[in-house]
Amino acid sequence: MMTTRWDRRFGPSAMIWLSLACATAVGAQAEGGSPSAIAPPVAQQTADCARPTYATDQLVCTDAALLALDTQLAEMITVRGQAVEPGTPWREEQKAWFDRRSRCAFLADHRGCVAAAYQMRLVELRALASPPGAGNHVRCVPDLAVTITGAGELGSRSLLDRSGRIALVAFPTGRGPWQPFVTWQARSKTVRISSLDGTTIASCELERRDL
Question: Where is the signal peptide (predicted)?
């Protein structure tokens, strides 16, 4: 049986849902009625192992290590109420993160991409929920932050604004299968903060060269 690109990304269940939706609409029109709407799959924030539709959900739900990461993430979101604030441009909202995580199915290293996605997401949410650590004073253009923390988990660094709130959490620039939403790169006393598409968010000058 030939496996299509659709199957690899969304899994066979999504094709079944689409076929049912089309069949229902055509049947209703043939009987002279208006097409009946079939609700699309419910928007997800973490894996749905009861009805795994996406190829990445199917991977997560059959891999003990990935499932443990997904369970941790679901607990942080639903039980602890930890989530990225909506409308914050340099923090990826959970639904957007989930959609990107699902697109790991297109990559050769599907599992590596998914594992890194979960690990970085957990680090980011933990950082946002915890008091920021000590850091260096910086002068950023534009004036996004005044402090950058020392290296945390997975090399992450938080940028704090003038009120002491975390403006963003950035990860080192790398070449792994998963691309962080925000990255940092240090050269001498300058730290460049970039978005997912490579656009510079801010260029920050350190007061001390000990980053």
Answer: 1-30
65 and 28 within one domain: no
Task: Record the pTM.
Answer: 0.77
**Domain check: are 12 and 58 in the same one?**
no
Pair 61, 47: CB distance under 8 Å:
yes
Mode of pairing for the β-strands spanning 147-149 and 200-206 = unpaired
- What pLDDT does 40 receive? 44
Give the residue among 117, 115, 102, 113 at the shortest CA–CA distance from 6: 102
Name 198's Cβ contacts closer than 8 Å, sequence gap at least 6.
none
Q: Last residue of some domain: 104, 130, 156?
A: 130
Indicate if 164 and 205 belong to the same structural domain: yes
Q: Which of 22-31, 37-46, 53-62, 91-100 has the lowest mean pLDDT?
A: 22-31
Find where tokens 């539709």 sit. Answer: 53
Identify which of 192, 181, 137, 185 has the alpha carbon closest to the alpha carbon of residue 162: 137
Domain count for the chain, please give it: 3
Residues 6+ apart with CB under 8 A from 56: 47, 101, 102, 104, 105, 110, 114
